[in-house]
Amino acid sequence: MSMSDEERDEYPDGMVRLRNPNIELMDQDILYHLALGSGSHDLPVMFGDVKFVCMGGIPKRMEQFAFYIMDEIGHKLPSGTTLVDISQYSYRYSMYKVGPVLSISHGMGIPSIGILLHEVIKLMYHSKVRDPVFFRIGTCGGIGLEPGTVVISDEAVDGLLRPVLEQAHLGKLVQKPAKLDKKLARELLSLSSPDEPYDTVLGKTFCTDDFYEGQARIDGAFCSFSETDKMEFLNKLSKMGVSNIEMESLSFAALTHQAGIKSAVVCNTIVDRLKSDQVLASKEILEEWQLRPQKIVARYIKRYLSNKGRLSLENHGHGGGFYVKSPRRMKLVQQESETYD
User: Which residues form the Nucleoside phosphorylase domain (predicted)?
Assistant: First the structure.
């Protein structure tokens, strides 16, 4: 069930609501893959001031983004402290907090980001966060776009070109609408600069369950179609207004929409799929391209904080340590999360 505009209007306080009555019946809610828990950690103290949740695939990239956004918003950590990976005991995702910004790695693909989103949305709920804004910052394959182009998604579609996330629940297929905030997408586009040596565009995103055959590649271990078939399909996508291909936007759009959370996907293309299947750019060029979506998101965050008079956030909020409600429960949560499969 998705949250309608009318249902959102019932909650003028902006608090994140869960669509699961079972959570209220639990003694504590262990966020297993984040190594956090509602009974072990004081989550409102740790995360109550969060406004922006920024996600990307790779832990190192999101650590770098945390330091980047810290410089951009002028955040100063208390003397003698440094940023820490709050979820270091999970060995699955990395999470860094810079004042009102969370920087989190989501791994690769719909299953990985879906697990994370369930727990981060619950984290927002337990922390009593108001009106958070979620961003996915990543890389993608472009369709007819110069590598290095920034694509802001205005819609996500699945492998059958439907704007829904389809999952099997209790042996039955369930569809969740995958909707992104179009106003937020336009606002982000307005923050691009004509002076930049690359284009920033709005476009539809084709989200797949697979990197190879699912994305019409012919360079995997297996291939069930010809080069001609591939090009016909990619050209069909282009005519439909699809600008890029990646593996997370569908789940990101569907779950944030269901939670009533404003969200956007901003990616840079690293290959034009009409010309090549393989990424041929150097590591140095790829690293420069990956900064481009971060710049737009940082501009949005800076503008918001500036309007609120919250730039230069010296000693503001939680700097990345742990506020423990129950040392015994915290130890148990960490031990549970450390037991990786």
Answer: 51-302
Write out the two tokens for 59: 């832990």
Residue 237: phi and psi, rounded to 5, are -60, -45
138 is in an annotated binding site: yes
Residues 6+ apart with CB under 8 A from 305: 73, 100, 311, 313
Q: Taking the chain, what is the end-to-end CA distance rounded to the nearest angstrom? A: 32
Q: What does the pLDDT read at residue 314? A: 45
Please choose, from the candidates 98, 92, 52, 65, the residue with its C-alpha nearest in 3D space to the C-alpha of residue 290: 65
Determine the pLDDT at residue 3.
46
Residues 213, 219, 223, 227, Cα dihedral to 10°: 100
214 is in an annotated binding site: no
pLDDT score of 89: 87
Judge whether 217 is annotated as a binding position.
Answer: yes
- Pairing, β 150-157 against β 200-207: parallel
Is 162 annotated as ligand-binding?
Answer: no
Domain boundaries, the chain: 21-338
Flag the least confident range among 160-169, 212-221, 264-273, 321-330: 321-330
Q: Is 92 annotated as a binding residue?
A: yes
Question: Topology of 21-338 in CATH?
Answer: Rossmann fold (3.40.50)
